[in-house]
Amino acid sequence: MQLPRLDGDGFLLNPKKCERDLAKGLAKELRMQGVLTREHYGLIHHYIRHQLEKTGKCPNIIETFRANNLCRAELKRLFPTGYMRGACKLAEMSCKGVYLGADYMEHSAKDLNAVVQRQEYRLDVRGFLVDSDEWDGHFAVHRACEMKIPGGKLSPMHWAVIRYLRTTFYKTGKIPTVSETCEAKNVGLAELEQLFPDAYHRGAVKIAGLRLR
C-alpha cells in the first residue's frame, strides 16, 4: 500500500485522500487515550471534512462550536491537543493553509468589517488572543488596523512572518525568537521593526494570535 504524503507538520499534502487507518495512527501519535469514537468521527469526518469538500475551506473553531453545539470543555475532552493540532490533524488536512490564504491579503479591516461583525474573540488584559485556535485571518487584519501597521493592511511579507510564527508554534509548541524569525524569513531586524512598529511580541506575535505565557 502506498503511504500518504505528509508535510513537515504531519498534515496530508492532499487532504482529499482520507483513510481511517491514518486517523487511528495519528490519534496514537497524539497520545489520545482509548479508541476513536462516533463523536470523534462525527466531528472530523462528517463535519470538518464535509465542510472542506463543500466550501474548499476548513471551518474555524467558532464555526465548529456553533454547528455542532459544542463547548470548550467537550472539545478539550475529545481532542486534548486542541482544535488544529487535534481535530483538524485527525481530519487529515492542513488548516494552517486555509487560515492563511490569499483572501485577506488585499483587504483592510474596514473592507472586512461587515463579514466579521458578529465574530467574537477572547482576549486577555494585554489584548492577546486567549486561545490560539480561535485565530483566523479576519482577526489578524483587524488587529493590524488597530495597531501601527502601515496603511492598516498586511502585505505578503507580513503574512509570511505570521505563517512562520503559527506553523512553528504548532510544530514545536514554542514561539520563535526574534533572531529565529529573522533568520528563517531572511529579514533584517530593522525591516522587521518597520513591518511591525509595535515591536515583535506586541506586534507580530499578537497579530499571529499567539502569546507568551
Structure description:
- By secondary structure, the protein is mostly helical.
- It folds into two domains: 77 residues, DsrC protein, C-terminal domain (Arc Repressor Mutant, subunit A); 106 residues, no CATH class.
- Helices cover 54% and strands 0% of the residues.
- It has twelve helices and no strands.
- The longest helix is centred in the first third of the chain and has 18 residues.
- The protein is elongated, with a radius of gyration of 18 Å.
- The N and C termini lie far apart (44 Å).
Number of helices: 12
Runs with pLDDT <50, length 5+? 96-109, 111-118
Radius of gyration: 18 Å
Q: Rough shape?
A: elongated
Which strand-content bin applies to the residues?
under 5%
What is the mean predicted local confidence, pLDDT? 76
Structure classification: mainly alpha
**N-end to C-end Cα span:** 44 Å
Query: How do the SSEs run, as a string of H and E?
Result: HHHHHHHHHHHH
Largest sheet: none
Number of strands: 0
As a percent range, the share of helical residues equals 40-55%
Number of domains: 2
